[in-house]
């Protein structure tokens, strides 16, 4: 086991992408969806998350550390591939390529998003509420940046979940993998809808 | 009729390379058409009369071949953008000009001939064989259910041709991934009664450096395999085996077969 770090790192990368990062993403988009019910509903929902006990510990172990590992190792994985979708235009090969592109886009988006919300709060004491998001998203460039970021993140999660099921040997047969393709498409559709509606609610 | 076939020709654009380290270049050929030609008989025609499309004398095109019936894998090359065996690539079914390129994932020896040594090294690395020799008679092997034998036979059709490695985006000069072919052979040998005695050793090798974990699920291999081997099913099955094995070795007792 000691001389076999690669297998461990790869499996850890796959696991962390779903647990906890994927779970956090779904929770985050669910809380954000309260923005469609109005500013007060959103502020209450976000306030509930903000006041969770041991918040900093949760943030460090559920978000920051897993995300850092997943991101850094993921960039390494993405850049060791040599995409060949022009010659092999199969569906899964496109998913392979888009998974790597959305991974990089999501990393850029999250870095910016964490800077302007969580880090701004920690450094400058910026209050995180409906108005903060409304002012960020009133700029059309930022609005589209957020749209691209959210769609990338949700795609990366949904397609990554499909890979997770193969990587851990849960879906082996082509049939089970196909069913999982449909399930992950549904997950992508639901959370993309939730993410985009939240952004529209903040912006309008 | 004889007049018509005489004037009919086949155009080729061949990617050539004079030595392992030299630059590749394209050369065009135009050869007379005959009925029922395959890419190999066309290459033989070029060898018989090595003159390119401009009418210049040139070195004959080099390629590798063996069985001529798609079971040895030696004559694999990229034909019109698709890696496949040139023996079963029939001229009548190919769009012209026919483009021939070497499988670039492997080091090019000369012209269309590549060095597939890494595949054979991988088979050794993952112990893709079943040891049956001993210092004494080990007796007959255990019987296998017929249905299982038929299933295993499909996996045994692998001819180490290299098409799956050529198609895989994760097999390249940046990575040392052993590729789908050797992984599927591990599944085959693990699945037979005698081979299963050495399953733990193979699993250790296959989860080692450059192993199973490098698969990125692009699934080009299963789409490209000329023998229709269920490569991605083999990879997912090994993934499950590796999951079970790693849980056993972490939480289990001191002996985990």
TrEMBL record, chain A:
What keywords were assigned to this record? Heme, Iron, Membrane, Metal-binding, Transmembrane, Transmembrane helix
From which residue to which does any coiled coil extend? none
Name of the protein this chain belongs to: Succinate dehydrogenase / fumarate reductase cytochrome b subunit
Q: Which NCBIfam families match?
A: sdhC_b558_fam (TIGR02046)
Among InterPro entries, the record links this protein to: Cytochrome_b-558, SQR/QFR_C/D, Succ_DH_cyt_b558_Firmicute, SuccDH_FuR_B_TM-su
Q: Which organism is it from?
A: Tenuibacillus multivorans
Transmembrane ranges, per UniProt, are 12-34, 54-81, 93-115, 143-166, 178-203
Q: State a single Pfam family of this protein.
A: Sdh_cyt
For this record, the Gene Ontology CC terms, alphabetical, are: membrane
**Residues bound to heme:** 28, 70, 113, 156
GO molecular-function terms, A-Z: metal ion binding
Q: Which CDD domains match?
A: SQR_TypeB_1_TM (cd03497)
Q: Where does it reside?
A: Membrane
TrEMBL record, chain B:
Q: Which GO terms describe its molecular function?
A: 2 iron, 2 sulfur cluster binding; 3 iron, 4 sulfur cluster binding; 4 iron, 4 sulfur cluster binding; electron transfer activity; metal ion binding; succinate dehydrogenase (quinone) activity
BP GO terms, sorted? respiratory electron transport chain; tricarboxylic acid cycle
Enzyme Commission numbers on file:
1.3.5.1
Instruction: Kindly give the InterPro entries that the UniProt entry links to this protein.
Output: 2Fe-2S_ferredoxin-like_sf, 4Fe4S_Fe-S-bd, 4Fe4S_Fe_S_CS, Beta-grasp_dom_sf, Helical_ferredxn, SDH/FRD_Iron-Sulfur, Succ_DH/fum_Rdtase_Fe-S, Succ_DH/fum_Rdtase_N
Identify which cofactors the protein needs according to its UniProt entry.
[2Fe-2S] cluster; [3Fe-4S] cluster; [4Fe-4S] cluster
Q: List the PROSITE patterns hit by this protein, alphabetically.
A: 4FE4S_FER_1 (PS00198), 4FE4S_FER_2 (PS51379)
State the signal peptide span.
Answer: none
Tell whether Iron is among the UniProt keywords: yes
The 4Fe-4S ferredoxin-type domain sits at 149-180
Reading the lineage from the top rank, the first entry is Bacteria
The record's keywords, sorted A to Z, are: 2Fe-2S, 3Fe-4S, 4Fe-4S, Iron, Iron-sulfur, Metal-binding, Oxidoreductase, Tricarboxylic acid cycle
Pfam families, from UniProt?
Fer2_3, Fer4_8
**Family according to the record:** Belongs to the succinate dehydrogenase/fumarate reductase iron-sulfur protein family.
Query: Which protein is depicted?
Result: succinate dehydrogenase
Its organism's taxonomic lineage begins at:
Bacteria, Bacillati, Bacillota, Bacilli, Bacillales
């Amino acid at each position: 086991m000691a001389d076999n770090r690669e297998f461990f790192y790869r499996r850890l990368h796959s696991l962390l992408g779903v647990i906890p990062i994927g779970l956090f993403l779904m929770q985050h988009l669910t809380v954000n969806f309260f923005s469609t019910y109005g500013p007060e509903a959103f502020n209450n929902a976000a306030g509930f998350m903000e006041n969770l006990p041991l918040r900093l510990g949760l943030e460090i172990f559920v978000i920051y550390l897993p995300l850092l590992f997943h991101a850094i190792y993921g960039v390494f994985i993405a850049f060791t591939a040599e995409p060949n979708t022009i010659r092999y235009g199969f569906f899964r090969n496109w998913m392979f390529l888009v998974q790597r592109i959305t991974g990089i886009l999501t990393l850029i988006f999250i870095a910016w998003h964490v800077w302007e919300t969580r880090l701004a709060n920690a450094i400058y004491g910026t209050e995180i509420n409906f108005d903060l998001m409304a002012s960020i998203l009133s700029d059309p460039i930022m609005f589209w940046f957020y749209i691209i970021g959210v769609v990338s993140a949700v795609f990366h999660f949904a397609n990554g979940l499909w890979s997770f099921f193969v990587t851990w040997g849960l879906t082996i047969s082509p049939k089970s993998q196909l069913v999982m393709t449909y399930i992950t498409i549904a997950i992508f559709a639901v959370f993309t809808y939730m993410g985009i509606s939240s952004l529209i609610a903040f912006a309008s | 009729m004889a007049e018509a076939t005489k004037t009919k020709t086949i155009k080729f654009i061949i990617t050539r390379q004079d030595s392992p380290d030299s630059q590749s270049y394209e050369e065009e050929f135009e050869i007379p058409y005959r009925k029922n030609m395959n890419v190999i008989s066309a290459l033989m025609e070029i060898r018989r009369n090595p003159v390119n499309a401009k009418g210049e004398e040139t070195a004959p095109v080099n390629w590798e071949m063996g069985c001529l019936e798609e079971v040895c894998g030696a004559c694999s090359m990229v034909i019109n953008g698709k890696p496949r065996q040139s023996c079963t690539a029939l001229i009548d079914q190919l769009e012209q000009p026919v483009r021939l390129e070497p499988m670039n994932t492997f080091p090019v020896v000369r012209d269309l001939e590549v060095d597939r040594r890494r595949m054979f090294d991988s088979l050794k690395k993952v112990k893709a064989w079943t040891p049956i020799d001993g210092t004494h008679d080990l007796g007959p092997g255990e019987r296998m259910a017929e249905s299982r034998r038929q299933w295993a036979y499909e996996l045994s059709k692998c001819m180490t041709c290299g098409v799956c490695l050529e198609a895989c985006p994760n097999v390249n000069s940046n990575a040392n991934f052993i590729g789908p072919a050797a992984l599927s052979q591990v599944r085959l040998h693990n699945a037979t009664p005698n081979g299963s005695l050495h399953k733990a050793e193979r699993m250790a090798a296959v989860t080692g450096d450059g192993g199973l974990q490098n698969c990125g699920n692009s699934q080009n291999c299963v789409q490209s395999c000329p023998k229709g081997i269920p490569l991605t099913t083999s990879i997912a099955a090994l993934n499950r085996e590796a999951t079970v094995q790693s849980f056993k070795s972490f939480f289990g007792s001191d002996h985990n077969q």
